[in-house]
Design a protein that fits this description.
about 350 residues; alpha/beta; Nucleotidyltransferase, domain 5; 2 domains; 5-stranded mixed beta sheet; 10 strands; about 20% strand; globular
């Protein structure tokens, strides 16, 4: 009988410490410790994030192994996020993975964080789960740091068709939420308020960028200037109209995202379309995907909420693909904060 492939995955790219265990590609556990310390600062503080990772990583990994019913000696390999992300945060996860892999004498698998998000649709929780896309498919990757349209030819062959030339969609939403004084992170707050507002109440700038690329800096500036004008007449304008503002902002972002995605689908002829990343948890974007599936006959793939944010399950399934291909990394692999090539 063939020995099972058991992967321990570690994700520590930003402010979530996560560990997952997979057996033969089936998810057994996915444990995440989030950090609330950043809320008071209105954004992630790298030094605080790395310190929290140091505190969390041992108990998180221990919990993931126990929840999966797996002993560390049974592990086949350790997959870890190598980048991109915050260098201090990445170092904690990478260093832990190196130490554990060396002590157990098992290989290491480095995973690109963004590719992990794109492949999150292949996470399976049972043997009878066959809801994964087939290659090739298009993936709209939207988060606080990235907005991309990716053509996924295979697990290790991804082509970026378009991406933001300035701010990412999630970043724009967070900054607009901050301008309104609503708090951090802005995504969930805007989502909740938008459900109660009129999406057609206000109009904001939509950039005219050629091709499949995105731009959200103009929207952010337009939102700020409009808000300043309205607050001159009514200092409490935000409090009186926050639901409509949130709904109109969300609609503008979603319209910008979907317009370019429709173009990519039309030009490539690929009608299997997925969404991934933190912003894929947004209700308005999810509803837009369902609407496009009905109107344009797309076959859509929307991740579970637990797989939209940073999580080790997506690192684990990517690691599983790479393990099968014998694609391991050396013990001296160093993390990277940004993709430079």
């Amino acid at each position: 009988m063939q020995k099972p492939i058991i992967i321990l995955a570690i994700e520590s790219s930003c402010d979530d410490t996560s560990a997952a265990v997979l057996r033969d590609g089936i998810l057994l556990s996915n444990v995440t410790a989030s950090q609330t310390v950043h809320e008071a600062w209105g954004g992630v503080v790298p030094e605080l994030a790395s310190r929290a990772h140091q505190q969390n990583i041992v108990p998180v990994v221990d919990h993931a192994l126990k929840k999966a019913g797996v002993e560390k000696e049974e592990l086949s390999a350790i997959a870890f996020t190598r980048g991109p992300g915050l260098m201090g945060s990445l170092l904690v996860g990478v260093s832990f993975a190196k130490g554990l892999a060396r002590s157990l004498g098992i290989p290491m698998i480095d995973v690109n964080h963004l590719q992990g998000h794109v492949l999150a649709h292949f996470i399976r929780e049972s043997d009878d789960d066959h809801s994964q896309p087939s290659f090739p498919y298009l993936c709209l990757l939207v988060s606080g740091g990235n907005s991309q349209i990716v053509k996924v030819n295979s697990y290790d062959n991804m082509e970026i068709l378009g991406q933001t030339i300035d701010d990412a969609a999630g970043e724009a939403i967070d900054k607009c939420s901050k301008v309104m004084g609503l708090g951090y992170p802005g995504g969930p707050i805007i989502d909740r308020l938008a459900r109660q507002g009129n999406p057609d109440a206000y109009e904001f700038s939509k950039p005219q960028i050629k091709g499949y690329d995105y731009s959200f800096s103009g929207l952010k500036t337009s939102f700020l200037y409009h808000l300043q004008d309205w607050q001159k007449e009514d200092p409490d304008f935000v409090e009186h109209h926050k639901e409509d503002l949130a709904a109109s902002l969300e609609k503008t972002v979603v319209d910008i995202l979907m317009k370019k995605l429709r173009l990519a689908v039309k030009d490539t002829g690929i009608r299997q379309v997925a969404v991934a990343g933190g912003v894929s948890a947004n209700t308005g974007l999810r509803n837009a995907f369902k609407d496009h599936a009905r109107r344009y006959h797309w076959k859509i793939f929307i991740p579970k909420f637990s797989y939209t944010t940073d999580n080790a399950a997506m690192i684990g399934i990517t690691g599983y693909f790479k393990y099968q291909a014998g694609d391991f990394c050396d013990i001296d692999a160093e993390p990277f904060a940004r993709i430079t090539q």
